[in-house]
Amino acid sequence: MRRRCGKAGNEPVWQAANRLRRSALPPHLIGWLLDDSSLTRWLKQACNGRFAVRVLRQGWTVPMSCETAALKLPLRRRAMVREVLLLCDDVPWVFARTVIPKRTLGGPGGRLAFLGNRPLGELLFRDPRVRRGRLEVSRVTPALLGVESTQAPVWGRRSIFRLSERPLLVSEYFIGELPPWPGERSR
Questions:
Q1: Which family does it belong to (predicted)?
Q2: Structurally, how many domains does the chain consist of?
Q3: Does the pLDDT at position 1 exceed 70?
Q4: What does DSSP assign to residue 37?
Q5: Among candidate residues 94, 103, 116, 87, the one with its CA nearest the CA of residue 32
Q6: Does the pLDDT at position 6 exceed 50?
Q7: Any idea what the CATH number is for the domain that residue 75 is in?
Q8: Are 88 and 51 in contact, with CB atoms under 8 Å apart?
Q9: Angular region, 126: left φ>0, alpha ψ -120 to 50, beta rest
Q10: With 80 as the cut, is the pLDDT of residue 185 above it?
Q11: Beta-carbon neighbour count of residue 151 at 10 Å?
């Protein structure tokens, strides 16, 4: 199922990952795109511990229409948006964008606003109250993300996480030259 959001070319077009033919994806990114466990854990393993998070922006803004639709937010409703780079040896591998509705920041979700340079994935995958929704995949140009990339086009994935039934949307775009997915060695 293809879902077009916003004006053509201005926002990602997302497809359910489980409906994609693997042959439609770049072979070197299949594991990175389709694994639904912690990306942070796999990046740290592939990076031999030289992993870091660099916050680019965090604040209240109106999300893209794709994000608003996915989170079922009213149009033009502001949410906390966090954009970060996930780095290995100071080289960007992943651009991540998280959209957190105001209601999600109440209760146990309050700590999401104060992550700083700590990886969101560590918090999400350690909390037994967190559930992950289905993965969706998209292919975009680096210009659409507003970042530099060694890859063109850039492939990304997103999913809705629920913390105590309150949603947040996490999108991860593979902008660097990643090594083979470490999960292949684990199987």
A1: Belongs to the UbiC family.
A2: 1
A3: no
A4: S
A5: 94
A6: no
A7: 3.40.1410.10
A8: yes
A9: alpha
A10: no
A11: 15
Residues 6 or more apart in contact with residue 105 via CB below 8 angstroms: 80, 112, 113
The boundaries of the domain holding residue 44 are: 2-186
Say what the pTM is.
0.91
- Reading the block at residue 49, the tokens are 């511990």
Among all chains, which residue has been given the structure tokens 């926002």?
11
Question: What is the four-CA torsion angle of 71, 146, 22, 6, rounded to 10 degrees?
Answer: 40
44: amino acid identity, one letter: K
Q: Say whether 82 counts as a known binding-site residue.
A: yes
For the record, the structure tokens of 83 come out as 């954009």
In whole angstroms, give the CA distance from residue 36 to residue 18: 11
67 among annotated binding-site residues: no
Q: 185 or 81: which carries more pLDDT confidence? A: 81
Taking Cα atoms as reference points, which of 95, 101, 94, 97 lies closest to residue 69? 101
Could you give the CA distance from residue 132 to residue 162 in angstroms, rounded to a whole number?
Answer: 6
Rounded (5°) CA angle 146-114-80: 50
pLDDT in tens, 26-55: 999 999 999 999 999 999 999 987 999 999
Pairing of strands 91-100, 79-88: antiparallel
Question: Chain-centre distance of CA 186, in angstroms?
Answer: 23
120 is in an annotated binding site: yes
- pLDDT of amino acid 108: 86
Residue in the block written with tokens 């920041």: 105
Residue range 140-151, pLDDT digits in tens: 988 888 888 887
